[in-house]
Amino acid sequence: MAVILLSGGLDSAVNLALVAKEKSENHLAITIDYLQKAREREIFFAKELADFYGVDWQVISLPWLGEKSGSALNRSEVNLPKFEINELDDKEKTKQSMSQVWVPNRNGIFIQIAAMLAESKGMKEVYVGFNKEEASTFPDNSAEFLDACNRALSYSTLNRVELKSLTIDMNKSEIVRKGLESHLPFEKVWSCYTGEQERCWQCESCMRTVRALLSQQDLGKATLAKMGWTK
Ligand SMILES: [Zn+2]
After folding, report:
1. Less crowded by CB within 10 Å, the N or C end of the chain?
2. In angstroms, what is the span from residue 194 Cα to ligand 1's centroid?
3. Domain spans of the chain?
4. Distance, CA 77 to ligand 1 centroid (Å)?
5. 7-32 residue pLDDT tens
6. pTM for the full model?
7. Pick the CATH number of 2-226 from 3.40.50.620, 3.30.40.10, 2.40.30.110, 3.90.180.10
8. 33 C-alpha vs ligand 1 centroid, how far in Å?
9. Element (H, E) at 162
């Protein structure tokens, strides 16, 4: 049994798909509402995904996190950085973008909450959607951070909850391929930073998904079309 941190985005959706497929036990997926711009869409699609995989699901509300955050993910007056595909490997651009969307200690807080829930329910594992592609700009997405979390959890939980990520060694193309192989319903995946009705296809997260799916030729293009991409 495991707790899965499920934003409804690509990486967490693939972790959910793999955990639900490999272990047919009772799992709990949690989605955190921290007043992010995409909260309504993320909550809607995370529930769709949890229902699809027959996993229990709940929302944890952390309004104070959003209220204190100066991130473009939260603040309506701060615009989200826009990306072209050929800018995704531009170190300066991604570093600047990271500082705009950064929410102080967000992943650290989410992991500790998930670990608390896991211990209280007698569960020993927490899954997160880390990936290699973004770990170079987001330090809280890295294997080093996962190891550090596990060291802390060996003290902060009595049953030694373990943090795991099945996508940590994968870039987005590999994650997308894993999702396609697992028949992940991509139309239920919401990676977009905005809270619009349709995906923006301009934010960094949308563009990483586009690039990854385009690398999968016709199947990737057909999947993008199902998600509303029209280019
Ligand atoms: Zn977007």
Report:
1. C
2. 6
3. 2-226
4. 17
5. 999 999 999 999 998 777 789 999 99
6. 0.96
7. 3.40.50.620
8. 18
9. strand 162-164
